[in-house]
Design a protein that fits this description.
With about 375 residues, the protein is of the alpha+beta class. The chain is built from 13 helices and 15 strands. It has helices at about 15-25, 45, 70, 85-95, 100-110, 110-120, 130-135, 155-170, 220-225, 230-235, 245-255, 310-325, 340, and strands at about 5-10, 30-35, 50, 125-130, 135-140, 140-145, 150, 175, 180-185, 190-200, 200-210, 255-260, 265-270, 355-360, 365. The strands form 5 sheets. The protein has a 6-stranded mixed sheet with strand order 8-2-1-11-10-9. A 3-stranded antiparallel sheet has the order 3-7-4. Strands 5-6 form a two-stranded antiparallel sheet. Helix 1 runs parallel beside helix 8 (about 155-170) and helix 4 (about 85-95) runs antiparallel to helix 5 (about 100-110). The chain binds flavin-adenine dinucleotide.
């Protein structure tokens, strides 16, 4: 029986970063257990745009991540505004209406730049300017959305591939088609391994530490309906079908306490033409972010969100949920800026009201 130093559950960005960090910090025997078959590996990370929001005081701090960028993009740094700790944290507070976790959000923002640099240096994740998503050309200059300048080269596909390449190079064992079904405990109640189901049956893996990096319950209709509501239960999934809330259920089964906002979600408008699950090869191309330039009305002809409340990068993740509830909701009088009413073409997303991306329903659990 192999006794691992570290067992990592999942093989997306979180899990592979944890596995690489474990090796970097001296763990010799690290295994990554991925439920998906090899050809479906990488979780939502594969589907993502790979854009990395992080805080910096001076745009030139970004430089080492993007060697040669000034040859590629004229006056590159002139189009970037500083994005300080306070800017990033303030955005988190504003967009979540103050519901972000005060401790975790500080940790996230404080470590954001160092983490991206670590991904580049140790994880060997190559970076590129996020031109097509967040850069807007104005004359000769590209103006960048605040805090969103860098992404993994070749977006989520590159990010995922990069992590697998580094993990393999570091001698980390990766097992595909290995679904973890339970966390094992020793006599003191400490996590001592996991139970795994694969094509050969069920087996126990033992280790000194278990790390859960296996996503949320975004692809689980039952859990979405139960925790977020029936209208979101019927939404479409823009990422992996494998994130079924297993990690949360396994942790709670051994006494972890549910924490955070279970009724919230990260959902975005997508085209109604997409199926219940987005094709893997089309990654994040389901996004429809044009709502900013018009108005959305429901079947009764009412507006139900303020399309121009903020830039798309700050509203898209919450307006998916708004669309789900669109036919039931009406915007109050005087809500929303006049420019949204006056926008050129009124377009109707009613048909897309059920076409949403659900991804990373952020949940944490804390041990009692
Ligand atoms: C279309 C799309 C675009 C996005 N764009 C961006 C972006 O540009 N920037 C950004 O910051 N974020 C973006 N995101 C969000 C980002 O992708 C996720 O927050 C991030 O990838 C989550 O990483 P993760 O490792 O936690 O989960 P995942 O990458 O989803 O990995 C979880 C893994 O766990 C595995 N797993 C699940 N259950 C088990 C089990 N029981 N046993 C073993 N393995 C299991 C899954 O198969 C999966 O591989 C996007 C998401 C989507 C869907």
């Amino acid at each position: 029986m192999t006794e691992y130093d570290v067992i990592v559950v999942g093989a997306g960005n979180a899990a592979l970063a944890a596995a690489v960090s474990a090796r970097e910090n001296g763990a010799e025997c690290v295994v990554v257990l991925e439920k998906a078959p090899r050809e479906m590996r990488g979780g939502n990370t594969h589907w993502s745009g790979g854009v990395l929001r992080f805080a910096f005081d001076d745009p030139r701090e970004i430089g080492p991540l993007l060697p040669g960028v000034e040859d590629e993009i004229e006056d590159f740094y002139d189009g970037i505004q500083p994005y300080t700790f306070d800017d990033f944290h303030g955005d988190l507070m504003r967009v979540t209406s103050g519901q972000t976790d005060p401790v975790l959000s500080r940790i996230l923002v404080q470590n954001s730049k160092d983490t991206v640099f670590w991904m580049n240096r140790v994880g060997n994740i190559r970076m590129e300017p996020a031109t097509s998503l967040t850069g807007v050309r104005k004359g000769n200059k590209i103006i960048w959305a605040r805090g969103l300048v860098v992404r993994a080269a070749h977006e989520g596909v590159g990010l995922s591939r990069g992590w697998f390449a580094t993990a393999e190079k570091m001698g980390i064992e990766i097992r595909y088609g290995a679904a973890v079904t339970a966390i094992l405990q020793d006599g003191r109640g400490h996590a001592s391994g996991v139970r795994v189901r694969d094509d050969d049956g069920v087996a126990d893996f033992h280790g000194r530490a278990v790390i859960l990096g296996c996503g949320g319950f975004e692809a689980n209709v039952q859990m979405r309906t139960q925790h977020i509501g029936p209208l979101v239960g019927g939404a479409k999934v823009r990422g992996t079908p494998h994130n079924q809330g297993d990690g949360l259920r396994m942790a709670m089964a051994i006494g972890a306490m549910p924490w955070g906002q279970w009724s919230g979600c990260h959902a975005t408008p997508i085209s109604a033409d997409w199926g219940n699950f987005a094709p893997r090869e089309l990654t994040d191309r389901s996004n429809r972010l044009s709502y900013l330039y018009g108005v959305m009305i429901n079947r009764r002809g009412h507006r139900f969100v303020d399309e121009g409340e903020d830039g798309a990068m700050f509203t898209y993740a919450k307006y998916g949920r708004g669309l789900c509830h669109g036919n039931e909701r009406r915007l109050g009088r005087g809500q929303g800026p006049a420019r949204a009413h006056a926008a050129a073409t009124a377009f109707c997303h009613c048909a897309a009201a059920s076409a949403l991306k659900i991804r990373s329903v952020d949940r944490e659990t804390r041990c009692r």
